[in-house]
Design goal:
Order of helices and strands: HEEHEEHH
Largest sheet: 2 strands, antiparallel
Bound molecules: zinc ion
Number of helices: 4
Strand order of the largest sheet: 1-2
Number of domains: 2
Helix content: 25-40%
Structural class: mainly alpha
Distance between the termini: 52 Å
Length: 107
């Protein structure tokens, strides 16, 4: 979709004195998150286009499936299922009406 234009934009952002991509161009203009390279920023931008709404709490990983994020967190960040559940609940509140918990957790 953005063939050619992406690299053209990179060149436009190039600081010709230092040969570096200017720092501000690696900052997400949606959330202000800074990235070390343009590729990481481009991947991150998918989050804001709605394709990958489930973001990892610890790294740049993002996915469009909650289960995928859970698997990622458990595997890569040694998070427990309970810890993930609590964090996900705070970060990604369910869209539907807030229901009462049906079951009491059995300890
Ligand atoms: Zn962002
Ligand atoms: Zn992660």
């Amino acid at each position: 979709m953005l063939q050619g234009s992406a690299s053209a934009r990179m060149l436009a952002n190039l600081n010709y004195r230092t040969g570096m991509i200017e720092e501000s161009k690696r900052t997400c203009h949606w959330c202000g998150h800074e990235f070390s390279c343009g590729q990481a920023l481009r991947r991150h931008m998918l989050i804001h286009t709605g394709e990958t709404p489930f973001r990892c709490f610890h790294c740049d990983y993002a996915t469009n499936r909650r289960e995928s994020l859970k698997a990622h967190c458990l595997r890569h960040h040694e998070m427990s299922e309970e810890e993930f559940r609590l964090k996900a609940k705070a970060a990604f509140p369910p869209a539907g009406p807030r229901g009462r918990p049906r079951k009491k957790p059995t300890v």
